[in-house]
Design a protein that fits this description.
The chain is α+β, with helices and mostly antiparallel strands. It has a domain of 198 residues. The chain is 30% helix and 18% strand. It is built from 7 helices and 11 strands. α3 links the parallel β5 and β6. The chain is globular, with a radius of gyration of 21 Å. The chain starts with a helix and ends in a 21-residue tail after the last helix.
């Protein structure tokens, strides 16, 4: 082999090594946990989510074997197309199924109870994104990097009313009651639920299905709900069109059961969301005292 060829190959190898080093540095040598792909494949095989005009599967996302989704779903609406997801979210199958279940069993019944109108749009501000938590180099990857998380900023009702986390978490009693009810219900279905009072979460609910323990069942919620959400009559979109007047949706009743929730942790799982609970730039001091409050 000529000296020129050896020098050329050495330079190429060095460049590739440098690039790999940058990637490893950025992601702190993190490797993709096997359970991400296993849960996604199981969800698809169980047909927990079916492709449609508003839930469209696409080719896999694989960003260097770390970030990615085995079979990403582009979700523009849920509830048989009656509830828009804006903008379109890119999620994995388990997260799509969990949000759909939360919408049907908690969000819609709560909207009917508090406002007498169903939700027609969920406003989200982040779904899939290949990044570390809080975009801090060297931190562990966010669940957003696997399409296993969504940030919900607000809800649009059929009567034109809009409820946002940023403006209504401390708003009038009905808005506060609705947001706290759906937040509490999210703590029953998701593994991590963060909202106002947690640094960087003053304008949205962060929902994900992270594994905080070996069994993947532990949950962490902040602010911690005072108690479980009320049982509501199951939502049926036809009720509105069939009824001469709105039923009393404050009446409690049975709902489709969510997966059995695991233990609720008393302290943050540092290996999962440590940086999301800190504010190195002092940007969140206006709500820093609200953590754990109503």
């Amino acid at each position: 082999m000529s000296i020129r060829r050896v020098v050329y190959l050495t330079a190429i190898f060095g460049a590739l090594t440098a690039l790999a080093g940058c990637a490893f540095s950025f992601f702190n040598f993190e490797r993709r946990a096997p359970w991400h792909d296993a849960e996604e494949r199981a969800c698809l095989m169980d047909r927990s989510v079916l492709p449609s005009a508003y839930i469209q599967a696409s080719s896999g996302i694989d960003q260097g074997g770390v970030c990615g989704i085995w079979r990403p779903l582009h979700v523009s609406a849920m509830a048989n197309g009656t509830v828009q997801i804006s903008p379109t979210a890119t999620l994995n199958c388990p997260m799509t199924a969990a949000v759909e279940g939360w919408l049907r069993s908690a969000v819609q019944p709560a909207a009917l109870a508090w406002f007498g109108a169903p939700v027609v749009e969920i406003k989200q501000i982040s779904s899939y994104a290949c990044r570390p938590r809080d975009n801090i180099q060297g931190e562990k990857l966010s669940e957003h990097a696997f399409g296993n998380a969504i940030d919900v900023a607000g809800f649009q009702l059929a009567n034109g009313r809009t409820i946002t986390v940023k403006t209504d978490w401390l708003g009038d009693p009905d808005d506060r009651g609705f947001l706290r009810e759906v937040f509490s219900a999210a703590c029953q279905r998701f593994k991590t639920v963060l909202g106002p009072g947690v640094q960087f979460h003053g304008d949205h609910f962060h929902l994900d299905l992270a594994h905080h323990d070996a069994a993947g069942t532990s949950r962490f919620c902040d602010p911690r709900p005072d108690g479980p959400p009320p049982n509501r009559m199951p939502y049926d979109g036809g009720l509105i069109s069939r009824a001469d007047h709105l039923l009393d949706f404050r009446t409690t009743g049975s709902i489709a059961p969510a997966p059995q929730p695991g233990p609720l942790l008393n302290s943050p799982p540092a290996d999962t969301i440590d940086t999301e609970l800190s504010d190195p730039f002092g940007a969140y001091d206006t709500q820093a005292g609200q953590s754990g409050a109503e």
